[in-house]
Design a protein that fits this description.
- The protein has 184 residues and is of the alpha/beta class.
- The chain contains 3 helices and 9 strands.
- It has helices at 51-55, 78-87, 151-159; strands spanning 16-21, 30-34, 38-42, 63-73, 91-101, 116-124, 137-141, 164-167, 176-179.
- A 7-stranded mixed beta sheet has the order 7-5-6-4-1-8-9. Strands 2-3 form a two-stranded antiparallel ribbon.
- It is globular.
- 24% of the residues are buried.
């Protein structure tokens, strides 16, 4: 698949007090398990971006002076994600972990399978917190490849004030501005 062009898909104008980003981190392929075929390696089902392309996104230009960023990342890109967050003008504050259940991949790690994704929380300025979340570890079922459970957006709405922007969204959401090449 071709790499999405940020020039063709300009970010919506802000300012936004809450930004959720699920960048299409670059992977050469991913594995799926099929009952008859076993382990099958397939190309990603979506266009990906390089680290430099992700870093270059003008997120700071649409963020309010007091804004909370929720940045999804994977084990492979975790060390780089802190730099992405800083490049976008945010200071890291905490990590929320999605413990994947239901049918997580048995592959992907160097010493153990990857049954988690990470949601880094960063701030710009001093955004208000609506509610303290009950935990920074959340268990939720895996759906299609790379799709995040909707309950995470519910959780984010409980903790952060809008206006809300979801970057790399896959579907519209009431009360949110969504941006991405998969939004219908």
């Amino acid at each position: 698949m071709s790499v999405p062009s940020t020039a063709l898909l300009a970010l919506p104008s802000g300012p936004f007090r809450c930004i959720v980003a699920d960048p299409p981190w670059h992977y050469d392929a991913f594995c799926q398990i099929h009952k008859k075929a076993g382990r099958v390696v397939k190309p990603l089902p979506y266009a990906s971006m390089s680290l430099d392309e992700i870093r270059a996104l003008p997120v700071a230009s649409v963020a309010a002076s007091d804004c909370r960023l929720w940045l999804w990342t994977t084990n492979k890109y975790l060390p780089h994600s802190f730099g992405v967050m800083a490049e976008w003008g945010f200071e890291y504050r905490q990590m929320v972990l999605w413990h994947k259940v239901g049918n997580p991949s048995p592959w992907g790690g160097s010493v153990a399978p990857n049954h988690a994704e990470f949601l880094l929380v960063g701030v710009r300025g001093n955004p208000p917190r609506k509610e303290m979340l009950k935990s920074n570890v959340w268990q939720a079922n895996v759906a299609r490849h790379s799709a995040k459970p909707l309950e995470f957006l519910d959780m984010i709405e409980r903790a952060s004030e809008g206006p809300y922007l979801e970057m790399f969204a896959r579907q519209p959401r009431l009360g949110w501005t969504v941006w991405g090449n998969e939004v219908p």
